[in-house]
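[Solved] Which block belongs to which protein?

Original post:
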Amino acid sequence: MIPSNTQNAMADRLWELDRAHALHPWTNFGPFEDKGALVITRGEGCWLWDAEGSKYFDAVGGLWCTNIGLGRKEMATAIAEQVERLAFSNTFVDMTNDPSALLAGKLASLAPGDLNRVHFTTGGSTAVDSAYRLIQFYQTCMGRPEKTQVIAREMSYHGSTYASQSIGKRPGDRVPEFRYMQEGIHHLTAPNTYRAPDGMGEAEFCDWLVAEFEAKLEEIGPDKVGGFFAEPIQASGGVIVPPEGYLKRMAEICKRHDILFVADEVVTAFGRVGHWFASWDEFGVMPDIICTAKGLSSGYIPIGAMIFSDRIWAAIAADGRRWYTSGFTYSGHPVACAASLKNIEIMEREDILGNATRVGTYFETRLKELEALPMVGEVRGRKMMMCVENVADKVTRQLLPKELDVGKRISDECEEMGLMVRPMGHLNVMSPPLIMTETDVDLVVNTLGRAIRRVADRFVKQGVRLS
């Protein structure tokens, strides 16, 4: 055991090294310069330990990704054995390796319909970026070189490459210091029933959204739109579950106009809502392309995949003289593919999808109880991806002043009590490991409830009006 004074000295050094040299994704420079980062040094199952030895239940699940939990020895063994046997082999042109071939076959067997073709990437962002390129390639091969514009939604997150971040559109991702692609990328209203205009009911709102899509196509010209990007549940945009029937109706419009439907399942795939893939099993939509990452390896090794239909393959491969000039040095990386194969094996053997369904249903039920709290406007989500929206007024749904940073204040309170939830402005989001138990659910909900009450009490004492 490390003496406490030695451990604290090590923790301080790690904190300072990170603060002095690391540029974190989504760094907020002022707070980072002042407070630095929380240094995590160990993980086991659903739990994390920081450099000072404090323990936290990770209801964030890394970043939507630690599906089978951390610290699994058989994952470490599978990774180590592959490193010893074949640490790297490229998959360009006419080369492959055995884990890449096996994983491609496994994904084809799990994916719905005729989605039997797999292009491996380095993560979710590059999977979406690859889908954007495939749309252009496919439509051009079909003799429609002008049909390459795409449509996505507001409050969507599709990654952080230049193309994928331009396709996504969350306010927090768009800053004036960066530039984004404008031409050929369009956005529709987010399918957030809680924020529907004029107090529309779910069915009326769905009709309105579908009509908006049709109007946008008429405005652009359907002969110029090649693809539609949609997360089945908009994850980082606030866990937005679409109205009943919305995705199916959008997919039908896409099919009518030969617009490729791209399901961004970087978060929803591999059990997050109880299925290998949510598009078909949860929403009855057969996409043309599925983008995935995160749960594919449960975060053990970075990997992503773009899975697409035999129909697309037939079109792009019809002329045997074409070259598909897109991919990555680490596409089909043998160690990443070996990790993913072992991850899927564990999920099948332990019925982790079943646990996600059973415990996820309990999680939904328990979290819904928090809607009784004065500051909670809505609890929404499915199974193991859930969100609490905090408001100043439950009737009007008016938000609290931005400067109060309510989501962060609640997450800070949770952290003090040994729980990690993710703050996103006025939201708190949870995507725990799929191995979570009902006892764990009680811990998360009870702790989060206490945190919300504490923050609300402080606001009231400061004169903030809640109703």
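(Second protein starts here: sequence line, then its structure tokens.)
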Amino acid sequence: MKQTIYIYHTNDVHSHFEHWPQIARFLSERRREHRARNEAMLLFDVGDFLDRVHPITEATRGKANVDLLNDLGYDAVTIGNNEGITLDHDELDTLYEQARFPVVVANLFRRDGVRPHWALPYVVIPATETFRIGVVGATAPFSHFYELLGWKIVPPFDMLAAAVEEVRQKADCVVVLSHLGVNEDEKIAATIPGVDIILGAHTHHVFLEGKTLNQTLLCAAGKYGKYVGVVKLEIDQNRLSRASATVVDVEPLPRSEAVERHLVCLEQESLARLEAEQVAVLHDDLPLDWFAPSPLANLLASALREWCQADIGMVNAGVLLAPLARGPVTKKDLHRICPHPLNPCKVKLRGAELKEIILEANTERMKHWQFKGFGFRGEVMGEMVYDGVDIEAGLEEDGQWHIRRIMINGEPLNPERTYEVATTDMFAIGHFYPQIQRAAEKTYYMPEFLRDLLAWKLAQ
């Protein structure tokens, strides 16, 4: 007997709900069409569905995101790093309380090595009366960050291999929900036998028609809900005879007006909830300039230095998106001006390394660098702003301003001395300044974000 099963998948939506009305209508219509043709349809998400950049996610700590997944009848999900390390321990532990789908993540444990009750290594889903699909999940092993939040994350490959071997005995087809990145997906296909389909995420890659490697079909649907992935499984005599993949661009598709209205209401409710939480009252405006030191950026640099108990504070002005006006300041204001899921970090650097960073940060290329990623949700890097650092610059013959002298807390920078520098974790994990990225001693402060430090500093 021949059967056809369709798998739809999303990944790395990052709370970009601008396409969600199209996605919702498309998936609902497809579900009705498949039901009318007596075809099975499954729906999976491969992590980073939530992102605290959006006020809905910020105010509800992702629970509204889970409700949206419930509304569309997702069959299983795995977690990404945005679920795993931008929520505190209790928030993640309770995130899926109302979920009407299983969460599969084979490499996440509590500190004592016991799996959390809401996380399964795999599930077996009866797609039809005679064909079962085993679904295994794994997420990126940001071990140190998970440990700071009270979790234990382990390297995924041994766990995946064991889970695949076990589920293969119970299922006719094995699908891996992999929030590991394209390179790791290729490694899974090459080294773990028994995997039929890998639905990929994390590196925001797109496979327009899938990619076959070692008889495993790799699939991925990009980022921000621009695409929905579709996998067609052709079953013959209860065996998978062929699998093919494509993605659907949802941009031109019709929108669900009901879902659109629901999102508007959710956002209004979330903004009202954030606005109700006042953190301070300002007696004066706090202006902001992305390309020069300014009071608001100076305040954040000072907050970083104090919070981390460091020699200096250092932050790029571009993490602040707008100034603060005199009067009440609420969590809505702080989320609006600093929406990034960025944590404080303290790093030990030799004076010579610190000097290299200051010189590089002072270049026009760095100040005007436009980028996204590593938690940064702004527009441009902006001026590097310091607390505890004084820079003497002069106009040279080339018509450019050049740094002539650097003072650290009133004393000339000592190239041989080790300084404790408070900054953001994006510099510690990203490729912006190699001296910070490769530093041997780094201390991360979690679960606080930069906006939490601003709230703390303003409340003083």
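Accepted answer:
You had them paired correctly. Confirming on the second one: Residues 288 and 294 are 5 Å apart (CA to CA).
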